[in-house]
Amino acid sequence: MSDIIAKRGVAPVAKQALFLLFRIGSERYALRATEVAEVLPRLPLKPIARAPQWVAGVFAYRGAVVPVIDLSALTFGQPAEARTSTRLVLVHYRPNATQSAQWLGLILEQATDTLRCHPEDFQPYGLDNREAPYLGPVREDAHGLVQWVRVSDLLDESVRALLFPDPPLDPAQLEAQS
What we know:
About 15% of the residues lie in helices and about 40% in strands. It has helices at about 1-10, 70-75, 155-165, 170-175, and strands at about 15-25, 25-30, 35-40, 55-60, 65-70, 85-95, 100-115, 135-140, 145-150.
């Protein structure tokens, strides 16, 4: 098949990806859908004493205790508004390729829409934001800019140690517990 494409001089079509859209205040952001395990309603959380103010707490899910962060509080210092569209989004958090994925909950406002586009449509925005390395490239559309949030870059090492003090379970072990 690739020989046929090459002979015709037609470039192969890049595969589109699905993103979950959400807002922080009036700004639009996106998570790659492959990083999302489940979208849940906002649930009651048990607070974690002396944690950073953007660590919203923990909840029990399928036999595991899952830490939750408020992405609005992390990014701009203001907690997410309690709206009917505010969700607790369970993501597969993997800080690097050598570690197993762990569940991490994110409180996200207006997490109700999706976007299908080519990942290459997101472009660097020209700022080295070392204080928020999880804020990735941006994409422009008819509604303005949307910024890609990279789940693997959400937590620095000290916060990872606070939220995930034990070695991670293998994903098969997580599924076996459910």
